[in-house]
Amino acid sequence: MRVLVTGAAGYIGSHTAVELLHAGHHVTGVDDFSEGRRGIDADIARITGQPIEIHDLDLRDASAVNVLLATGHFDAIVHLAGRKFVGESVREPLLYFDRNIGTTVPILQAAQTFGVQQIVFSSSCTVYGNPTHLPITEHSPLVPTTPYGFTKRAIEQLLADLCVSQPELSIMSLRYFNPIGAHESGLLGEEVGGIPNNLMPFLMKVATGELPEFTVFGDDYDTPDGTCIRDYVHVVDIARGHVRALEALETRSGFSALNLGTGVGRSVLEIIGACRAATSHDIPYQVHPRRDGDAVEVYADPQRAAEEIGWKAERTLEEMCADHWRFTVASSRRGSMS
Length: 338
Ligand code: WQD
Known about the structure:
Oligomer: single chain
Structural class: alpha/beta
CATH topology of the domain at 2-181 and 232-261: Rossmann fold
Number of strands: 13
Number of helices: 12
Radius of gyration: 19 Å
Bound molecules: UDP-4-deoxy-4-formamido-beta-L-arabinopyranose
Largest sheet: 7 strands, parallel
CATH superfamily of the domain at 2-181 and 232-261: NAD(P)-binding Rossmann-like Domain
Helix content: 40-55%
CATH architecture of the domain at 2-181 and 232-261: 3-Layer(aba) Sandwich
CATH class of the domain at 2-181 and 232-261: Alpha Beta
Order of helices and strands: EHEHEHEHHHEHEEHEEEHEEHEHH
């Protein structure tokens, strides 16, 4: 298929573009490069042996989006563009409405204009908020507790409503749990400048010595070691989930949502231990007060993705940490050479 990947220069987007190309699809990217890395198209081409064009444009610019879809003749859209930091969204809700919802409406309008009927959307386990029952299934209540989670919930509702107004549409929303890791080549990974929001990039910066110590946001939660629990899943597994979802859309219509997680919850301290093993660095940490918006314990029931699209997370926590570390070291070497 001819596939447009929005956010293609980003962490999930670049890995998803690689897996779509590996699966034989023709991939065009679009990114505003506010987070994504310029030049990543060359790395994607180097990994896959296939070229990819990533258009530099703002998805809030409806006229530019229309030109892109008028000329692209796309069969499907994989919509990943958006911001994804829970803590940041609590501090800046307007930014999240603008960058997540404001970038989605124009692409959906253009899809309607140019007859693109298959869409895979990048959603998040944060649509579930602070779950009352675990593991989380797709029928768990959708009660987001942060602006980030709310934007994903709102977009899912819009997509579901579109499928009612246009029954020929086929749309799947993928609710990622916590993506970590990197492509085994060391060429693609989570690029984070400055002080990271997310756990893994922060741990990696402490391992390299760029940051002095890690901040654990609270160890007084009702969990075995007092720290929050999350379902960490390898970014390549997440990317392959998009390929499975896209190919499933060809034989179905309507809206559906699937959890992409391993089904295993791990605490912050467990991840610190796994990173110490993977990096052979001490990774010192200090316990600080809880972070606003954090859920105590979140992990998936991944059964429905296995049943509906034949997807299951395959990579282990050790592989996630080793791959993330390899990218971190390779990326800092590239930085020092540039
Ligand atoms: C994980 C745990 C923190 C940083 C992420 C993505 C979001 C969504 C869900 C896809 C929490 C703790 C973190 C630090 C810490 N995924 N932590 N010190 O908040 O679960 O959300 O996964 O859509 O996009 O952002 O991930 O990595 O920020 O936090 O103690 O410096 O690590 O309290 O328990 P989160 P995170």
